[in-house]
């Protein structure tokens, strides 16, 4: 038994006998890693000195991989901890000085290793998979800053890493090699994480470089190197998507702890406001500001910006305004190649900013926070079913978590008397100066508000919201436990006794579960025992056989409360004793009743998980006082002994195991001896006469669990004899139980485990096997092997076959060998074989060097090796017997594979260890802030509960054991024989046999040395090819299942040698894949291969130049070329039959060419001709792949290859038949598409695949070949970015246009004319007629081809007019209304592809203007006008903001166009499409005002608004007498609403239309449009007003304008206008509440007047608006309004004002009732002090005449729905008289009438 461990950190403690060994091991590991890093650096430097370009060779690749693996192992094993502990304690003991002298220059060595890995990350020659490994290890090292030292001078390569990230992911659409989806996603994650780590290592030099670095140079008015330009001023905010991309890149590296960042906060806030319609934009800024507020607490005065930021924060919740409009609509869709950089969640970032911006020096910060809480409070109630409930719940948990972190850091700083502000860094948490720290009064105020929200949300119907609320309560309890704990305990007692709402019990249990760590910590909350005693009686009924979830929650609570058992026992021992006994009785009763046999064909699933029950037993029994344990164990022994055949047998076994570990002294007397007496008698080892086999099986299993936890039993000899006797039995249950008993006996003897520690003050200790234990284990193994020889292996085969129980003997032997492997894994491991490193010159310490983990092989390697050989010789003999005599017996083949466990497989992390490790991590994360505040830094591990310390120690030790057991091959001959057998079983016809053999084979290959692995894989591929050649489909499936294992796929994709073999297997399998399951397996293999494939290093060395250790690498360039040649021969060879038939093979081949192609490869000319012909394939999937392949080859081709392509293209396109076939297949691509799939917001692989009927073939293509950010998704950028997005309903294929443009760029002008002539002549030809090729599709393909032709025309005088003529032909092809979006897309693409060809666009512009000017707005074809206007829009849409060349050169015609469009003929046109096009074009043309400064009478916006105003006034005056004028008035109103709607969506508040001078003119006209009789016009006006409310930014001028408008419309003659005014102002106030001045209260008072309008509709609209507005106001305002409504009701009482003749009194009374209803419903889940009197007063109106009585009934129906759950508490807010009157009125018969 080990003594007290001397380590200072129990969480990293190991047995002290390992201490000196681990230090030596650490030294060797560190020196080996440092030497390897220096060797790599020297070789890189040598490469740079050569004349040839630097090239990373395979040897350096291998060294880098070993460096990464070795460093990761060094960090995982925490070998550096000893050095850190010593450096912190400054120990003066001479022994410690001598031991730690080996760590000299520790930090410098680790820094050298880090720099070498970072150099490897940044080398472009490194392939992506190796870069991922290096970046992960470097990140793990950077996350431990103490390793590098506090004075580390490390300068991170942030600039190079950021450039690599943008090059590889953001800008990879312009022609990049294919990278598999999984590799690409991992590559993105590791680089982003690495950049985030860099931020904390930036010195002043790096910060200056960041803020002066020209990250963003796309803005023309910014000089990139101008030192006076701030970083964020370089953002191209006029291009929203571009700005998001730039800000996302910058946010990854910006050092928010730097003082340099403070200077641009005002500019940053201003810049944030410039984009109003992007959720990603808001998310990035909130994330950035949250980090600044946290890392530089109160370095900035946030007061001037808080109102603006809170206004944006409210938009993150997407809260409804109760008028159908959401708070925020994310209009701008961020492309995938940009959105991958956007990090963080907006709600959690908002919570972070709010908490860290609070300061007592600025009380308004708290006021704004409380206002925000008041607004969102109704959304926390359980009856609230809004879609955004998860937003508010996550906000609450984020707020409380950040509040706890801030509290801990400030309390720690106060305790250490830190007065000044501490700047944040990688080692120091930032803290505010003393005057800015939150006071206890502030904390109490904030906690009380947040607790109310958490309490409401706790009972939500969403389990996620409930858990978030429980976590929030836990955080608040950590902040103020003396306030929160009593509240939670008191409310839980009410919920436990509630019978009508059982869901509240579960919610309460979740809340108690998160506060239990506080209750169980005697130092954090000393008075916890008092509340635990209150809870214990209520927990007993929670063990419910009808509700396993509630039982599990209750058990988790008892686990946490067990840590206070000692304190409870000292205080009230009898209470604890009664609870413990009753609790165990209830748990056992639960197990006996809940466990029932599984249904036939279904696996048994326990309602109480074994891991959870094991954790409970471990904690419960180890914390029970010793004086209680004997009686408890005696009681358990009696119950369990009588229940040996129970279905709860495994649970009982777990209970006995932990009793053995916790209280071993009672084990022999209470468990082992009684069990032996039941199992044995005086004459027989097994008492079979009195016991059934089922009962014996149960007793043996219970015995096994008792022995596993306690090996030093005085009955160990009897136990071994019982195990041998059971294994000799032929009954399956008995020999299985016997083998389990043997396994447990060996495990108890050999395992190194943590001992029990009852006293919480003592240190953990270890139970380490001594020599006696090892000798007994060796003797046990020898006896078992002798038993197996006599039982099976020594028998004659013929005699064995004649035995009726032969199979049972084989099965029993397999179980016994499995028990030897599992139970004796400590005995058979630890003898490291140095041959594992002979294939490399790298130090053994870097690879799988010896680890000291308590294995027998560390002490006696020879004996361990001998035992391992004996065991595996018998395993091989057993497999040989089965293969020879029972080859067709699936059960036998399956069971003999059970003992095959390789190396560290026996020490892998099981599910329980993963769960308990996660629990320990979660506890550390949740309690870290509180523990640090109370105990100081680096004390979290010390002060966590002992069980978490135990779990962390066990997991660390298991890691060491896993590494130690990797050297598990002591005899290569046995290993090779075993692998050969496993390969045979992998091709079995039985699926379960294949699965088990495959897992064993992969595990063996993982641990096999590299040179042996290569040989085994060669043999494996030979076997696979043989199986496929037989064409037996079951064997083919087996081969494909084996090859798609992740380990093999990752290994194969590292070498072109293996890729070639894998490609050959895929092609061979595709030729014979006819069955559905074969096709599925093949598609799965191909998809996994595509997800992992990536460009590899092309080594040019020959085999003779390679090292002897790596003879098979060969010439990678030759291997790759041979793969491509093989693929070419399959589809291009004239002898191949594939050409005539198998489309699946064609799809596979061309996909492989696409993913493997490199520009260094050579494609013969004849193959290029054949490849072009495949563009006309009849199979869609083949065409799609070929199009991508050709586009990629062209994009990566060099000058010499371009010349070859020019010859080919000129030859191919000179053939009219080829062009006809190409056009026909392109038509077919678009013919099967749903038009909605071409929408701008559809998925990235919408083109040509999503609608295909070839589901299996397209599945792997879409998901694997189409990596989400791969450039070839559309052959270029997703869509040219500008103000206007892509039209929604166009059918244009971007891939078609870009492919055709690239192909036609290689031909001369004459060929271009010929292609256009042929295409135009074939447009109406019969040759293109097809059942699915409609005229619309033909015109669309012609349009795409025309765009590609015009783009490639030379800009000469002879071609300009031709280009214009082609544009006219293109325009004339589309004559229907559905083609307007297609026209826009084609012409916008045309302009964006070649924006510098001004001459042709100039002529076409003049042509369009002439056509529009000659059109009569009334009589000319309306569709033609709409078509011309849409084309004009397409030409100018993308000229903003900075490319106004066409407009500037045609300023006069531009102004004349505006005059034309603002004529009444167009603004009041009868055709709706024309009006929409006019609005769209005017919206675009008005953007020209952005560059002209202040608005004046000559600007476009002013002209448009004044013309609209004059026309509307004109038609309004004539509308009463002339129906035609009335129609024109309606049309003009529709145009105005369309214009406002489009301008709001385009630029939001920055659009010139929303200038206050113009708003004063058109807003009243827009509100007047609400009275229009046309339903469509009224609906469009409502949408426009909703958008307008978002875009009118509050300012003194704007507020005064709107106030006057509200007063004016109060007396409007139209009730629709008055109702629309109320709704508009309600939305405007809601959207901009935090930015409004005090005038908002006057405006709301004015809106209250609408409650008493003459129209019932207006009064009801005002009531609906008041519901939303009331929630924004403080309680004092609501109370004032309440008194006002009561006064009106009292002065206009029912008796004097209910006659129908007195309409004025009814109006006033109805308005007051509506107002009162709105005030009541604005607080849907609470009873405020002013509400009871108002409710009673409204209840008095229930007998009034309609509509008053109707309103009252409706209000009380809604009131009762929302208050029913908590009415028992809320009714206490009423006085007795009020409650009596209230109930009397509501329960009256008239209420239900």
UniProtKB/TrEMBL annotation:
GO molecular function, one term: peptidase activator activity
One cellular component term from this protein's GO annotations in UniProt: nucleus
SUPFAM superfamilies to which the protein is assigned, alphabetical: ARM repeat
Alphabetized Pfam families for the sequence: HEAT_PSME4_mid, PSME4_C
Family from the record: Belongs to the BLM10 family.
Span of domain Proteasome activator complex subunit 4 C-terminal: 1709-1793
Biological process, per Gene Ontology: DNA repair; proteasomal ubiquitin-independent protein catabolic process
Domain of life: Eukaryota
Protein name as it appears in the record: Proteasome activator subunit 4
Keyword check for Iron: no
UniProt KW keywords: DNA damage, DNA repair, Repeat
Coiled coil: none
All residue ranges annotated as the Proteasome activator Blm10 middle HEAT repeats region domain in the record: 371-563
Organism: Galdieria partita
Swiss-Prot/TrEMBL HEAT repeat ranges: 1643-1680
């Amino acid at each position: 038994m080990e003594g007290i461990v001397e380590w200072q950190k129990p969480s990293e403690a190991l047995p002290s006998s390992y201490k000196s060994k681990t230090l030596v091991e650490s030294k060797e590991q560190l020196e080996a890693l440092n030497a390897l890093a220096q060797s790599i650096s020297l070789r890189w430097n040598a490469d740079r000195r050569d004349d040839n370009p630097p090239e990373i060779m395979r040897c350096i690749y291998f060294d880098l991989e070993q460096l990464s693996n070795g460093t990761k192992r060094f960090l995982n094993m925490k070998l550096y901890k000893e050095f850190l502990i010593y450096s912190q304690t400054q120990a003066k003991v001479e022994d410690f000085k001598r031991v730690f002298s080996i760590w000299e220059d520790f930090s410098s060595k680790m820094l050298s290793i880090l720099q070498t890995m970072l150099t490897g990350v940044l080398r472009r020659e490194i392939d992506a998979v190796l870069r991922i490994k290096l970046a992960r290890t470097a990140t793990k090292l950077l996350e431990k800053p103490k390793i590098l030292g506090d004075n580390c001078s490390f300068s991170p390569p942030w600039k190079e890493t950021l450039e690599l990230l943008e090059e590889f992911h953001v800008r990879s659409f312009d022609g990049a090699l294919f990278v598999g989806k999984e590799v690409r996603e991992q590559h993105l994650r590791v680089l982003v994480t690495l950049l985030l780590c860099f931020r904390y290592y930036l010195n002043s030099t790096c910060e200056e470089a960041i803020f002066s670095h020209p990250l963003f140079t796309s803005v023309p008015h910014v000089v990139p190197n101008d030192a006076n330009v701030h970083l964020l001023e370089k953002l191209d905010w006029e291009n929203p998507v571009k700005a998001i991309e730039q800000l996302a890149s910058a946010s990854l590296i910006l050092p928010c702890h730097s003082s340099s960042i403070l200077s641009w906060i005002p500019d940053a806030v201003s810049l944030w406001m410039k984009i109003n319609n992007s959720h990603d934009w808001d998310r990035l800024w909130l994330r950035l500001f949250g980090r600044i507020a946290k890392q530089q607490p109160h370095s900035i005065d946030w007061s001037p910006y808080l109102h603006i930021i809170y206004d944006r924060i409210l938009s993150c919740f997407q809260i409804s305004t109760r008028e159908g409009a959401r708070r925020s609509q994310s209009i701008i869709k961020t492309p995938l190649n940009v959105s991958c950089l956007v990090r963080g969640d907006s709600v959690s970032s908002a919570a972070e900013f709010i908490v860290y911006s609070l300061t007592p020096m600025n009380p308004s910060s708290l006021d704004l926070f409380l206002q925000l809480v008041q607004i969102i409070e109704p959304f926390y109630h359980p009856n609230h079913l809004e879609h955004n409930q998860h937003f508010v719940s996550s906000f609450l948990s984020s707020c409380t978590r950040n509040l706890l972190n801030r509290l801990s850091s400030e309390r720690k700083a106060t305790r250490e008397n830190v007065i000044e502000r501490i700047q944040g860094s990688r080692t120091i948490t930032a803290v505010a100066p003393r005057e800015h720290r939150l006071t206890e009064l502030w904390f109490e105020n904030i906690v009380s508000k947040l607790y109310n929200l958490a309490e409401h949300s706790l009972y939500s119907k969403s389990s996620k919201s409930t858990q978030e609320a429980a976590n929030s309560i836990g955080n608040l309890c950590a902040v103020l436990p003396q306030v929160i704990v009593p509240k939670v305990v008191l409310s839980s007692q009410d919920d436990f006794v509630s019978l009508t709402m059982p869901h509240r019990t579960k919610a309460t249990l979740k809340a108690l579960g998160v506060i239990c760590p506080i209750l169980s910590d005697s130092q954090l909350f000393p008075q916890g025992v008092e509340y635990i005693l209150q809870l214990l009686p209520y927990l007993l009924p929670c063990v419910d056989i009808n509700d396993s979830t509630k039982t599990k929650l209750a058990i988790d609570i008892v686990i946490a409360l067990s840590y206070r058992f000692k304190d409870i026992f000292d205080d009230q021992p009898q209470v604890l004793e009664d609870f413990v006994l009753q609790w165990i009785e209830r748990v056992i009763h639960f197990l006996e009743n809940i466990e029932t046999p599984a249904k036939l064909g279904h696996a048994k699933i326990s309602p109480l998980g074994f891991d959870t029950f094991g954790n409970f037993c471990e904690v419960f029994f180890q914390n029970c006082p010793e004086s209680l344990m004997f009686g408890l164990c005696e009681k358990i022994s009696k119950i369990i002994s009588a229940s040996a055949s129970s279905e709860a047998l495994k649970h009982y076994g777990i209970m006995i195991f932990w009793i053995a570990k916790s209280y071993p002294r009672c084990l022999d007397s209470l468990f082992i001896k009684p069990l032996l007496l039941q199992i044995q008698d005086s004459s027989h080892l097994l008492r079979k006469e009195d016991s059934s086999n089922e009962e014996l099986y149960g007793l043996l299993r219970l015995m096994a669990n008792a022995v596993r936890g306690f090996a030093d039993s005085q009955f160990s000899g009897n136990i071994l004899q019982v195990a041998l006797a059971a294994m000799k039995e032929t009954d399956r249950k008995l020999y299985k139980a016997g083998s389990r008993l043997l396994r447990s006996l060996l495990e108890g003897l050999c395992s190194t485990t943590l001992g029990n520690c009852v006293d919480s003050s003592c240190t953990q200790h270890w139970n380490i096997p001594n020599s006696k234990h090892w000798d007994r284990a060796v003797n046990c193994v020898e006896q078992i092997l002798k038993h197996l020889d006599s039982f099976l292996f020594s028998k004659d085969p013929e005699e064995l076959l004649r035995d009726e129980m032969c199979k049972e003997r084989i099965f029993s032997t397999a179980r016994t060998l499995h028990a030897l492997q599992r139970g004796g894994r400590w005995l058979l491991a630890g003898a490291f074989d140095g041959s594992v490193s002979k294939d490399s010159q790298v130090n053994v310490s870097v690879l799988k060097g010896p680890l000291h983990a308590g294995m027998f092989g560390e002490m006696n390697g020879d004996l361990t090796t001998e035992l391992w050989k004996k065991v595996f010789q018998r395993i091989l003999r057993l497999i040989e017997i089965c293969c020879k005599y029972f080859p067709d017996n699936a059960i036998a083949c399956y069971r003999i594979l059970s003992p095959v466990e390789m190396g560290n497989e026996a020490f892998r992390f099981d599910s329980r260890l993963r769960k308990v490790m996660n629990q320990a991590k979660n506890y550390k994360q949740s309690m870290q802030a509180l523990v640090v505040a109370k105990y100081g830094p680096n004390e979290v591990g010390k002060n966590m509960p002992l069980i978490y310390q135990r779990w962390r120690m066990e997991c660390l030790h298991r890691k060491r054991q896993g590494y130690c057991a990797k050297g598990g091959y002591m005899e290569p001959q046995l290993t090779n024989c075993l692998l050969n057998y496993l390969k045979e079983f992998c091709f079995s016809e039985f699926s379960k046999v294949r699965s088990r053999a495959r897992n064993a084979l992969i595990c063996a290959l993982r641990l096999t040395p590299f040179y042996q692995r290569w040989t085994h894989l060669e043999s494996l591929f030979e076997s696979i090819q043989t199986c496929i050649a037989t064409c037996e489909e079951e064997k083919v499936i087996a081969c494909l299942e084996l090859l798609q294992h992740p380990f093999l796929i990752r290994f194969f994709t590292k070498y072109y040698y293996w890729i070639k073999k894998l490609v050959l297997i895929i092609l061979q399998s595709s030729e014979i894949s006819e069955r559905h399951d074969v096709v599925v397996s093949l598609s799965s293999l191909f998809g996994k291969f595509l997800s992992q494939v990536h460009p590899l290093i092309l080594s040019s060395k020959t085999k003779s130049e390679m090292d002897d250790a790596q003879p098979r690498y060969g010439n990678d360039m030759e291997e790759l070329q041979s793969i491509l040649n093989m693929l070419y021969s399959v589809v291009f060879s004239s002898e191949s039959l594939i050409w005539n038939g198998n489309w699946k093979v064609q799809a596979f081949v061309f996909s492989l060419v696409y993913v493997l192609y490199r520009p260094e490869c050579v494609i013969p000319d004849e193959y290029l001709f054949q490849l072009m012909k495949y563009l006309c394939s009849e199979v869609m999937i083949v065409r799609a792949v070929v199009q991508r392949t050709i586009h990629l080859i062209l994009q990566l081709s060099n000058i010499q290859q371009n010349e070859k392509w020019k010859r080919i293209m000129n030859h191919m396109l000179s053939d009219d038949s080829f062009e006809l076939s190409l056009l026909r297949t392109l038509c077919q691509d678009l013919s099967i598409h749903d038009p909605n799939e071409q929408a701008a917001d559809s998925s990235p692989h919408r083109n040509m695949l999503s609608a295909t009927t070839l589901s299996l073939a397209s599945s792997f293509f879409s998901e694997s070949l189409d990596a989400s950010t791969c450039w070839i998704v559309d052959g270029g950028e997703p869509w040219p970015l500008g103000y206007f997005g892509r039209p929604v309903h166009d059918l244009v294929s971007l891939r078609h246009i870009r492919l055709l443009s690239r192909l036609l760029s290689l031909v001369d002008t004459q060929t271009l004319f010929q292609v256009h002539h042929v295409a135009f002549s074939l447009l109406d030809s019969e040759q293109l007629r097809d059942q699915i090729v409609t005229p619309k599709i033909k015109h669309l393909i012609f349009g795409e081809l025309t765009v590609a032709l015009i783009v490639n025309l030379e800009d000469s005088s002879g071609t300009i007019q031709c280009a214009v003529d082609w544009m006219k032909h293109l325009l004339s092809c589309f004559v229907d209304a559905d083609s307007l979006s297609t026209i826009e897309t084609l012409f916008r693409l045309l302009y964006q592809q070649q924006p510098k060809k001004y001459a042709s666009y100039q002529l076409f512009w003049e042509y369009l203007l002439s056509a529009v000017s000659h059109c009569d707005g009334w009589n000319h074809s309306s569709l033609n006008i709409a078509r011309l206007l849409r084309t004009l829009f397409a030409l100018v849409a993308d000229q903003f903001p900075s490319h106004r060349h066409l407009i500037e050169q045609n300023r006069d015609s531009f102004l004349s166009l505006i005059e034309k469009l603002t004529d009444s003929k167009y603004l009041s046109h009868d055709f709706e499409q024309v009006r929409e096009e006019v609005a769209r074009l005017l919206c675009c043309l008005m953007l020209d005002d952005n560059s002209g400064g202040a608005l004046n009478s000559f600007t476009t916006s002013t002209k448009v608004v004044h013309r609209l105003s004059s026309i509307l006034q004109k038609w309004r005056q004539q509308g009463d007498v002339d129906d035609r004028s009335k129609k024109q008035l309606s049309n003009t109103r529709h145009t105005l609403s369309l214009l406002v709607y489009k301008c709001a969506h385009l630029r939001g508040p920055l659009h010139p239309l929303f200038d206050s001078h113009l708003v004063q003119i058109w807003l009243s006209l827009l509100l007047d449009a609400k009275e229009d009789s046309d339903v469509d016009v009224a609906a469009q006006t409502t949408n426009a007003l909703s958008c307008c409310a978002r875009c009118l930014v509050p300012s003194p001028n704007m507020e005064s304008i709107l106030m006057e408008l509200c007063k004016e419309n109060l007396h409007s003659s139209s009730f629709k206008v008055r109702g629309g005014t109320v709704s508009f102002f309600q939305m405007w106030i809601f959207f901009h509440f935090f930015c409004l001045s005090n005038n908002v209260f006057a405006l709301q008072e004015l809106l209250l007047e609408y409650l008493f309008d003459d129209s019932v509709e207006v009064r009801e609209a005002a009531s609906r608006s008041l519901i939303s507005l009331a929630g924004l106001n403080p309680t004092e305002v609501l109370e004032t309004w309440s008194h006002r409504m009561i006064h009106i009701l009292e002065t206009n009482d029912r008796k004097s004002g209910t006659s129908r003749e007195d309409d004025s009194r009814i109006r006033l009374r109805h308005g007051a009732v509506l107002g009162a209803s709105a005030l009541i419903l604005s607080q849907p889940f609470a009873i405020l002090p002013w509400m009871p009197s108002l409710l009673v007063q409204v209840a008095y109106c229930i007998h009034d005449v309609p509509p008053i009585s109707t309103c009252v009934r409706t209000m009380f129906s809604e009131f009762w729905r929302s208050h029913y759950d908590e009415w028992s508490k809320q009714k206490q807010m009423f006085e007795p008289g009020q409650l009596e009157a209230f109930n009397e009125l509501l329960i009256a018969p008239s209420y239900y009438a």
